[in-house]
Design a protein that fits this description.
CATH architecture of chain A: Orthogonal Bundle
Largest sheet of chain B: none
Number of domains of chain A: 1
CATH class of chain A: Mainly Alpha
Structural class of chain A: mainly alpha
Strand content of chain B: under 5%
Low-confidence stretches of chain B: none
Oligomer: heterodimer
Shape of chain B: globular
CATH superfamily of chain A: MetI-like
CATH architecture of the domain at 89-306 in chain B: Orthogonal Bundle
Radius of gyration of chain A: 22 Å
Number of strands of chain B: 0
Structural class of chain B: mainly alpha
Largest sheet of chain A: none
Order of helices and strands of chain B: HHHHHHHHHHHH
Low-confidence stretches of chain A: 1-5
Number of helices of chain B: 12
Radius of gyration of chain B: 24 Å
Mean pLDDT of chain B: 84
Helix content of chain A: over 70%
Helix content of chain B: over 70%
Chain lengths: 282, 312
């Protein structure tokens, strides 16, 4: 199966029917991305505009999601938060994905002591509850989005590296890797041109799941006051804004939460669909 | 075969793990921008006072000397004193950790109680209505942040219906349980979703295995096949996943405790971050990591019991 996948001509010929989850999730993520890039096209008001004549208003035609305790339009803020939260999904996972993949490929190919040492590092890092370690690092660096990216990246690459290392170890024992070596290619060329394209699938699938987790983590830190800072419109920050008004003005917190669930669902569906697609192809 | 040699070997492996945990926590605190002395004394502290505190805390020493002192202190069970609460950090851990552990254990139990039967139902009804409904609900649960679910449960079942207290920890064991049901349920949902998914897949895999066909051909009763052959083998990977998830659960407990105002270790950690109470942040990180590594040990032992090949 690997030999088939390694040959682009065969891959192109294979007829692929897209799994439903992939299409459905893809539509959600596609729309979310468009909203994230052009929030002003969709938002009826300015996200920071306060209207003291319309505090804590229940949903109406003028304010479909109601207004918050500063008289800001909740729908507008949910829409503008797409820019921040989609950015979190990308930036909190991009470095771990790239760096983890490179490290994993090198470690997996080298094997031996490098792999043993890496195994120890992984064991030690997963001993720290991920969220606790990220919170502790953010506490040291100070609250804010950039420091949150740093904190997540310091820990997050390990999971990708482990996935890729395992896969590369399988691939390097196959015939085509031997042929590469027989042709006299240098190890780096074999690793990145030949082995990696066949070994990256699990990391790619995990990347999608990880983006869903990043949104959960980003909004959690926003909620705790350690991520995006008010008055930035971010879903976790909005939920924190509304938590004291749950009994009287539920709409402040409930709508941003629905946005989190839908976006998170989108990423996990794409992940599931991708996994299914790549499995059936094999 | 006896599991004793395996358990001893795993206990030995704890030594490097603990060493690494201590190293990471040490590095973490030395990265603190600005010095702890100013954090303790405030912005308008005199230089002389800052120097005095630095000397008291040993922060004027070279890093390797500090590290040795740090290790010595930990070995003697001294984690320093809280700056804001003026109490030894070890006392605070002893006070708060049981609350967090009780919350985590309750959440783990709820997750198991939800996941086990539903995974069976979903696997046996594969691709039918029940399966799709269970998977759909859990998929949504997996995308829902802990703090959001917590706020909603709190509003509906706490403030609205008045079935549960809206926060705090209560007095006495039964009252504790009553106070922790909603938070534990909040914490349990995503773990239940992960376990259900894994176990469902495992059961589907095992039901098709040859040894199950053989058991059926021998004429064993279906219930016996399910419990002795299918469940035991399907549980192996789920136990591993369950153990690995304890860290995530403890992390989630930090947020849950904040939402439900539970005086546990997580809440204390967040409060200490706001108050720049770095000895507490350091001590709590250490304590939580030790808890997780002990859970991993336990997981490995259970796994070795279920599948003796692991211990070889």
């Amino acid at each position: 199966m690997t030999i088939v996948a390694a040959n682009p001509a065969v891959r192109r010929r294979a007829r692929i029917s897209l799994p439903f989850t992939l299409v459905f999730g893809g539509v959600i993520i596609g729309l979310s991305t468009i909203v994230a890039f052009f929030p002003s096209l969709f938002a009826p008001y300015d996200p920071a505009a306060m209207d003291y004549n319309a505090l804590l208003q229940a949903p109406t035609v003028a304010h479909p999601f109601g207004t918050d305790s500063f008289g800001r339009d909740v729908l507008t803020r949910v829409i503008h938060a797409y820019t921040v939260d989609m950015q979190i999904a990308l930036f909190a996972t991009l470095f771990p994905f790239v760096f983890g993949t490179i490290v994993g490929a090198l470690v997996g190919y080298a094997g031996g002591w490098a792999n043993a040492l890496f195994g120890r590092v992984v064991d030690a890092i997963i001993t720290f509850p991920f969220l606790v370690l990220v919170i502790a690092i953010v506490a040291v660096l100070g609250p804010g989005l950039v420091n949150m990216y740093v904190a997540v990246s310091v820990v997050g690459w390990v999971f990708y590296a482990r996935l890729v290392a395992t896969e590369v170890q399988v691939q390097k024992r196959l015939d085509y890797a031997d042929s590469g070596r027989a042709m006299g290619y240098r190890p780096l060329r074999i690793i990145f041109r030949h082995l990696l394209p066949n070994a990256i699938t699990p990391a790619l699938v995990y990347w999608m799941t990880d983006m869903a987790l990043a949104i959960l983590l980003g909004s959690s830190l926003g909620y705790l006051g350690l991520g995006a800072q008010p008055p930035t419109a971010e879903w976790g920050v909005q939920i924190a804004d509304g938590k004291n008004f749950m009994n009287t003005a539920w709409w402040i917190s409930v709508f941003p939460g629905i946005a989190i669930v839908i976006t998170g669902l989108g990423f996990s569906l794409v992940g599931d669909g991708l996994a299914e697609l790549l499995r059936t192809k094999k | 075969m006896s599991l004793v040699p395996y358990i001893l070997r795993r206990l030995l492996q704890l030594i490097p793990t603990f060493a690494f945990i201590v190293l990471v926590v040490f590095i973490l605190v030395r990265l603190l921008p600005g010095d702890p002395a100013s954090a303790i004394l405030g912005d308008r502290a005199l230089d002389a006072d800052v120097n005095r505190i630095n000397a008291e805390l040993g922060l004027d020493q070279p890093l390797p000397v500090q590290f040795i002192a740090f290790v010595k202190a930990i070995a003697t069970g001294n984690l320093g004193n809280s700056i804001t609460l003026k109490l030894p950090v070890t006392d605070l851990i002893a006070q708060r950790m049981p609350v967090t552990l009780m919350l985590t254990v309750m959440a783990a139990l709820i997750a198991l109680v939800l996941a086990l039967p539903l995974a069976f139902l979903a696997a046996l009804q594969r691709d039918k209505l029940a399966d799709n409904a269970i998977r759909g609900v859990f998929q949504v649960g997996l995308s829902m942040p802990v703090f959001y679910l917590g706020i909603i449960l709190l509003t509906v079942f706490g403030a609205g219906l008045g079935w549960f207290p809206v926060g705090g920890y209560g007095e006495g064991f039964l009252d504790h349980v009553h106070h922790l049901i909603l938070p534990a349920l909040t914490l349990a949902l995503s773990l239940a979703a992960i376990l259900m998914r894994n176990l469902r897949a495992a059961i589907i895999g095992v039901v098709g295995a040859e040894y199950v066909d053989f058991a059926r051909a021998k004429g064993l009763r279906p219930r016996l096949i399910m419990i002795r052959h299918v469940l035991r083998n399907a549980l192996i990977s789920t136990v591993t996943l369950f153990g690995l998830s304890i860290g995530t659960l403890l992390g989630g407990a930090v947020i849950t405790e904040t939402v439900f105002a539970i005086p546990g270790a997580g809440r204390l950690m967040i409060d200490s971050i706001y108050g720049r109470d770095y000895p507490v942040v350091q001590g709590m990180t250490l304590a939580l990591a030790v808890c997780v590594s002990l859970t991993f040990l336990l997981t490995d032992i259970v796994q070795a019991y279920l599948d003796p090949r692991v211990a070889r």
